[in-house]
Amino acid sequence: MKGVEDMDASMEKTLKNFESHGIKARYFETGEQARQAIVQAVRGKKVAFGGSVTLQQLGFYEALEQHNPVFWHWVTPAENRREREKECEVFFTSANALSRTGEIVNIDGTGNRVTMATYGPEKVYYICGVNKLCPDLPSAINRARNVAAPRNARRLGLETPCVKDGVCHNCQSPQRICNVMDITLHRPGAVEVELWIIQEELGY
C-alpha cells in the first residue's frame, strides 16, 4: 500500500474527506496489495459478500475462503440467503460511485447490499477502483444511475431501456434494477465502515 506521502494531493484530500465522515479510508496501488492485506485483516471472521464485479475481478472470495467461513450468493445460491448473510461478522461490497467530498452511492434492485452495508454486520468494507471516483455528490449520483446501472443491467442480460442507450430513463420496466438508492453521508452508527480505494479500474 502506498503511504500518504506517495499519493497525489487530490487522493490525499479524498481520503481525508471520507475520514471526516467517520469512514476509515485506505489507498492501494494494486489489487494484489489489497488482496494480501484483506486476508490478514479479517482472518477467521465470518464473511459475506454483496454482488460485486469488483470483488470478482480481485479474487477476494478465493483468497478469503482459505481462512474464513465465506458466503456469497453468486458462488453458492441458497434459499436462506438472508439468514446466511445476517450471520456474518464482516460484509464486503463495492460502490456504484464515490464522491471525492466523502459520500458513497449505491443503487440496488433488491436492497440486499445497501441493507447489509448500513445495518447488520460488525464491519463493512467497500472495495473500489479509482474509476468510481467523482468530483462531488451530484456527479456520483449521476454515475450510479447513468454508468453503473446500465452496465449492470447489460451484464445481467436485461431488457431495460438503459441497456439500449446507456441512459437512465427512470423506467417502469419489470426488470428494473434501480429500485433502492443509498447515499452514505456519514458512517452509520451501528457498524464500522472502511473504504479501500485501489489505483485500478475495477467493476462498473
Task: Walk me through what this model shows.
It is a single chain. With 204 residues, the protein is of the alpha/beta class. The protein has 8 helices and 10 strands. It has a 6-stranded parallel beta sheet with strand order 1-10-7-4-2-3. It has a 4-stranded mixed beta sheet with strand order 8-5-6-9, sandwiched between helices. It is globular, with a radius of gyration of 16 Å.
- Computed CA radius of gyration, to the nearest angstrom: 16 Å
Question: Percent of residues in beta strands?
Answer: 15-25%
On the 0 to 100 scale, the average pLDDT is 91
Order of helices and strands: HEHEHHEHEEEHEEHHEE
Low-confidence stretches: 1-5
Distance between the termini: 23 Å
**Helix share of residues?**
25-40%
Instruction: Supply the helix-strand structural class.
Output: alpha/beta
Helix count, DSSP H or I runs of 4 or more residues:
8
Largest sheet: 6 strands, parallel
Strand order of the largest sheet: 1-10-7-4-2-3
Number of strands: 10
Q: Shape from CA axes? A: globular
